[in-house]
Amino acid sequence: MEIRVCIGSSCHLRGSYDIINLMKSGIEKNNLEDKVNLAAAFCLGKCGDGVSIKIDEQVISGVTAENFNEVFDTYVLSAV
Ligand code: FES
Questions:
Q1: Alpha carbon of 46 to those of 4, 7, 14, 39, 43: distances in Å?
Q2: What is the CATH number of the domain that holds 27?
Q3: Of 7, 31, 32, 43, which one is least surrounded by beta carbons within 10 A?
Q4: What is the pLDDT of residues 53-75, one digit of tens each?
């Protein structure tokens, strides 16, 4: 699974850095290092509703530290 977290300027201002860290710890906690490839991406085209992330071909926007666990369960844990 490929996960890209947008670090374009708009998403950066909305907290991409926190999302990358949450993503890293979620991957480690669930021992998904071999299954998930995490990287940063530049603008994913949904700047008005950041933070945007891309999981394989799907773009998910509006990711925040508050809803992160829900996003992680729905799009990562249930799909690996
Ligand atoms: S800056 Fe993240 S979608 Fe544009």
A1: 13, 12, 12, 18, 7
A2: 3.40.30.10
A3: 31
A4: 999 999 999 999 999 999 999 99
- Rounded distance between C-alpha atoms, residue 48 and residue 33, angstroms: 31
pTM for this model (two decimals): 0.95
Ligand 1 and 52: CB distance under 6 A: yes
Is residue 30 lining ligand 1, measured as CB closer than 6 Å? no
The finding on whether 42 has its CB within 6 A of some atom of ligand 1 is: no
Residue 37 banded pLDDT, cuts 50, 70, 90: very high
Could you tell which of 43, 54, 58, 63 is best to mutate to test the pocket of ligand 1, judged by most ligand atoms within 8 Å of the CB?
43
